[in-house]
Structures are given as structure tokens and as C-alpha cells.
């Protein structure tokens, strides 16, 4: 039997912190007076009793086809007349598990969820709890079982919204709270279905906020030490006011059991997704249409910035009905619609939470100065559909013909460069719209090789100045050296025109 909560492995260490004390003569007795420590909640019994009926167990079933002929396991060799001959004939024969198409089998899994609307019968859980399920059943604390249907689900945030018939059972709903107000150290309570045991209450604190565990594009989890185990997925994480501030979704554990590191999707991110799934059956996320990179220390130094905050725009992307022409490659986005962008991973989440079609102000740093530009957001899902269709249409496209390269006219920063003429375009299959200077060779162990610059990439600009010839590159690098710069910021284009920024050492 499978259980819902995702798990992984984490290696960690323990750091010891020694605190020293110093005596201060006559005032020492005052400093050593015992201080009353703040206590946790004496009991959460009343809170648990009020909330537990709103938390449900989510049981799913799926028909899985048995192994086919290609999965056939060879029959062991046995002496003639062996007493196990008949057994192995049954097991490995055409009707057994080792051969033929095999009969379908029933796979079940268990997770958790909670009611958010008693009148309409709306239940929230994790997408991975109900993914690929043929049947979904919601089990209540009093033993009542109801069939559920999926209103909508979202793989990016791992959320799903279910509907049950409210006329068949008296439902208790819980309310969402503001996870943005939750602080590290606040008490929280988790209720769920660990290991299929049924309604179970655990207590702990918020251990950390804004955790990125690389499970999706919008990671910003609440970390808690309230025990979360397999089967707790989709269950609520409550504050001490009985409000849901998170949806339990993942654990880090070498054994699959709780080691005090669990993660919940914060409601400040989940509520808008849940509302969209309820209303439309799908998500409708904002789309800015930019490719971004982190602002590293090298990039900040190359751009004359004092901090590494913001998201570096590596290029614009068409599609999804976005109007973003006022943004330029090389801009560093530091605020979006009044919200600060502290890092590159903040921007996709902030944009996705914004309404489609909204006109927003974006504050960027462009050539060392702050500027405010306006954009009209498109819809992410429209762009993804368009991109998927284009990728399908491009399959089987013709390949270019390999031709000898002309000698590179300039050798800079470990790269041999050549003008981007028709011969170079053919040799490296570079799209007609790409302009700049082509890299024909990269010297091993050079500064360029460290940044994984490859032959066929095209240098579009250096230090936010366009280059059209190998000589332009050489002059620009010399100019940056005279300015005292240690790194050169290169905008590179792939053969299809996709842009990225790299900083290359000039020392």
C-alpha cells in the first residue's frame, strides 16, 4: 500500500554553540535572578476537538495493467520431477506474473484533506494524493465514507480540489488564515492520516519559512517540526486560532518516517490557486514573458550594483498575450507591482499570483539607474500550450551541413571568435534572427570554459553594449579592463536565439 507524503534524504550536522558569561561585580545577583520561561500551550484538546471533524482521509484506487510479454521473468531451471515444478509452472507460465499481458491489479493509496466549504462540499488535498486515481473516496472521522470527484488540480503547487455531496453528510469546514503573519517559533498543529491510521493530531512549531526544496517552480514552504509522516499529505497545518496556514505536502527523511522536518504549502500561495481550481477547474497564472537568471556577485559587480538582489532578464519570450516590450535584456527587476524581488526565484511566484491581463509597474535597474516600466501580463497556460505545439511541429526538422570554419580573427578570454556570416550560420545551425559574434572554439581550462561557453554560441553584447564583430569584442574587453573591472558580463545567444548572461574573468 502506498501513502501520500513525498519523502527524501537530507544529510546534516550538529553545530555546538558555546555561550560565555561574565561577572559584573555588584550587579551580578540581579543578572542571575531566574527568568520565567515562556510556556507552550497547556493543552490543545479543545482546539483539536473543534477541528478534527473537518479533516478527512482521502483514499484512492487505480487499476494498473499487469506486466506484458516484454516484462517476462525467465523460469528458474529445476531438476526433472522437482516438487516445486507445478508451482513454478503456475507462477512463470502464460497466466502467471512472469508472462503474457497479465491481469490488471488494484493499487490503493491514502492521504489526507480538509473541508473548506460545507455548503458546496469542497475538499482540498495534494495533487500527488489523487493523481491518476480511478476512484476517490473521502473518509470522515466518524466513519462516514463519500465518493469524491476532482474539480481541478495543479501539478506546479501540488494542490487539488475535490467535491463531495454535502447532502449525504453534515460537514464541518475550516477557514484559511494568513500564513504571512506566521513567525518562526509559532506553535502549529497538524491533523492527518499518517500510515493510514486515521485522524491523528501532532503539535510543533514553525521551524523556518520560505524554504526551497526544489520540488516545483514556486517553492516557498513553511517548515515545521510537527510530526508529518506518509499519509499526512494534503492535511492542514493549523495555527493556534484554528486557521489553516499551510497544506502539508512533503517530508525529508531517510526512513520515510518523521524526523522533525516537514513542509507545508503556505496559504498565501495556495488560496489563489484553490480559488481558481474551484471556479475554472484550472489555473490562470500571470505571465511576464521573460527569461531570468540570478544576480550573482560577479553579475552585480559587472553591472555596477552594490547588492545581489533582483532578477536578471536574460531575454524576452513571445506568447501568452503578454505586452512586455518596455523590458530589455540586461535589466535587473527589483520590484514587481509594488512587491520587492529579493531573488530570481521570487519573481515567478509573484508574477504567477498576479491576475491575467493586469497592467503592472515594474522597477528595473538599467545601466546603473532605476527605471519604472509598465507591462500587461499574459497567461502562462496559453504560452505553455503554444510552446508545446511549436516543439511538436519542429520535430524532424532538417539538419545543417557541416562545413570547414574560417580562421577566427580574434582570440579573447579563451575563445576564438568569428564574424557571424552565412557560412557560420550554416555550420552551427544558427537562426537568421540571431545577431552578434560567433564563438568557434573554447580553450580548455580557460575562463570561458569555466562558464560552459560552447562553440556555436553567439556573443550579443558585452557589458550591456552590443557587439557586431570580433574586433568589437576585443575593444570592449580592453575598455572594461581600463575601467578596473575584473569580470566581463556577456550576453550569449544559443543557436535558436535563447539568451543567457555569464560573467567571465578578465584577470
Q: How would you describe the overall organization of this protein?
A:
Its main location: periplasm. With 507 residues, this protein is α+β, with helices and mostly antiparallel strands. Among the domains are: 179-280, Thrombin, subunit H; 286-389, Roll (Pdz3 Domain), CATH 2.30.42.10; 410-505, Roll (Pdz3 Domain). It is built from 11 helices and 29 strands. The strands form 5 sheets. Strands 1, 2, 3, 4, 5, 6, 7 and 8 form an 8-stranded mixed beta sheet that branches. The longest helix has 15 residues, at 380-394. The relative contact order is 0.09.
Topology:
Blueprint: E1 2-3, H1 28-31, H2 45-51, E2 55-64, H3 85-92, E3 105-117, E4 122-125, H4 127-130, E5 135-139, E6 145-147, E7 149-154, E8 159-163, E9 187-192, E10 200-211, E11 221-224, E12 236-238, E13 244-251, E14 262-266, H5 267-280, E15 286-287, E16 290-294, H6 297-303, E17 311-316, E18 332-336, E19 339-340, H7 346-352, E20 359-366, E21 369-376, E22 378-379, H8 380-394, E23 410-412, E24 415-419, H9 422-428, E25 437-442, H10 447-450, E26 458-462, E27 465-466, H11 470-482, E28 487-493, E29 499-505
Parallel strand pairs: 1-3
Antiparallel strand pairs: 2-3, 2-5, 3-4, 4-8, 5-6, 7-8, 9-10, 9-12, 10-11, 11-14, 12-13, 13-14, 15-22, 16-17, 17-18, 18-19, 18-20, 20-21, 23-24, 24-25, 25-26, 26-27, 26-28, 28-29
Largest sheet: 8 strands, mixed
Number of helices: 11
Unreliable runs: 9-37, 68-72, 95-100, 395-408
Anisotropy-based shape = elongated
- Strand count: 29
The overall pLDDT, averaged over residues, is: 82
The CATH H-level homologous superfamily of the domain at 286-389: PDZ domain
Structural class: alpha+beta
